[in-house]
Amino acid sequence: MNRYISLLLIAVLYFSLEPASSYATIVGGDVWGEWNPNGNNYYVYTDLHIPPDSTLIIDPGCRIIFLGNYKLSVDSSSTLTAIGTESDSIIFTPEDTVNGWGGIRFYKASNNSRLSYCRIEWVRTYNAGAGISCDQSSPEISNNTITNNSAGGNGGGIFCRYSNPIITNNTISNNFVSTVSSGGGGICCMYSCPIIKDNLISNNSVYRFGNSNGGGFYCFHSVGIIENNEIVGNSAKHGGGIYCFYSNPTIGKNNIRSNIARYGGGIYCLNSGPTIRENSINNNNVYKCGGAIFCKSSHPIMTKNVINNNSADYFGGGIFNYFSSPELINNTISGNCADSSGGGIYCYHHSVPVVVNTIFWADSASSLEEIYLGNYSSITITYSDIDGSWFGEGNIDSDPMFVDPENGNFHIQWGSPCIDAGDPDSPPDSDGTTADIGAFSYYQNTGINDDNIISQDYKLLQNYPNPFNSMTKISYSLPRRGKVFLNIYNLMGQRVATLVKDYQQMGVHSVSWDASDYSSGTYFCKLTAGKKVFTNRMTLLK
């Protein structure tokens, strides 16, 4: 009892120190109703609890400051709605960043709960789920910043167990899991089916000794969708970017780069069969094996990925397989490095991959091979382009003629030997011709490369058709979310049309310009995105 009286006195002291022009509210225990910024700051002197079947609404601009390591619990069938705005977020933070606070914990809570435009920071807990914990709860978590949190169990940023939350457009960075045999520095999912899209997952880490897994993500007996995320600079012992254990998620259109691990710099699969499609997996590094992807007793399906410039200090600069049988269809694997063997792919202990329509080019190892087979392993490769050649139907050994591999552009140019050289029994390209080899198709009827995979840099493609009569299509790609301006100017430098003025997600975007009301002549399309500016000349002929 004396402890709580002392805490109340501390809270009263904070209130008395507030400037005369502002207010403060002291909160603790059971809470419901509505908080608005007129009550700022909200000082929390003990655990907060939303009782069953109750609702707490927190308005934009509220600041909730925890005076100790206290948590906010959202109980059975109760609802937390904390929705800020882009310019007026809701802040959850402790007074003492060293000892932190206890995080937000959903337990059998209403699926109507929503966290949006909140900042959740400096959580310190010995349990699983530092920033946000979802147990049999499926809130919507969007547009938040979840940063500098630390968990003793799984999930430094977000933890999900028997839950199916929607997690979109968040920045989840610099979170940490501090114990051995734990995982998910950014997000951990156990027995769950979440939708995780359009997030920045960066610089999260798991204690990299013992059995630590998934610097960015840890999937444990889970499915779900991991799509359009930027997963960068995370670290763990197994799976610097993503770790899958008895899990079969769809991992699609992500940019997985510059992650660090001992095994599986980008993705680690153990007893799993995820679908890995249309990702850019580059510049990941491991101290042991599997610079980009490590497979152990796993059977993933990998389609239309670009796997480049990853490195391993031992085996498998690109992909390492141990008792695994992945399918590789229409991938580009180039510029990876292993200090020992298997610059492109390493197969060991009864591994039997199947490869079709895939490029292995300019990967390196001390033994100079693209592909290494050892200990009762075999590989079936057909209709692929292999640097140094490989036996199998339809295989070639020719420069694929990448557009600009030094800058991460692995599209193929017109005249590439990979055009129409894929398996004739594969589904045809979008232009109706025989499948091309590699991650990108070349549209022969337009001269525009297939851009359905995330680019590693900003790009503005030439409009098509050009010259054009009234209608033309303009395409561009973004490596990360940001504000985009796409304007049309005339020869006098006057802006005549604004086609895009908005925040857009990473990926490829297209917009059409109807110039029916404009006179023939030369126009300029100007793209401004990030710190990059691009301009293309267009010709309108009527």
Walkthrough of the structure:
With 542 residues, the chain is mainly β. Among the domains are: 1-122, no CATH class; 151-277; 459-540, Macroglobulin (MG2) domain (Immunoglobulin-like), CATH 2.60.40. 3% of the residues lie in helices and 43% in strands. It has 1 helix and 59 strands. The chain has a 27-stranded parallel β-sheet that branches. A hairpin with a 5-residue loop joins strand 55 and strand 56 (495-504). The longest helix is centred in the first third of the chain and has 16 residues, at 2-17. The protein is flat, with a radius of gyration of 26 Å. The protein starts with a helix and ends with a strand. Mean pLDDT is 90; it is low at 1-9 and 11-21.
β-sheet strand percentage: 35-45%
> DSSP helix count?
1
Main sheet: strands, sense, barrel: 27 strands, parallel
Shape: flat
Mean pLDDT rating: 90
Task: Specify the structural class.
Answer: mainly beta
Percent of residues in helices:
under 10%
Which spans of ≥5 residues are poorly predicted at pLDDT below 50?
Answer: 1-9, 11-21
- Strand element count: 59
Through-space gap between termini? 85 Å
What is the alpha-carbon Rg in Å? 26 Å
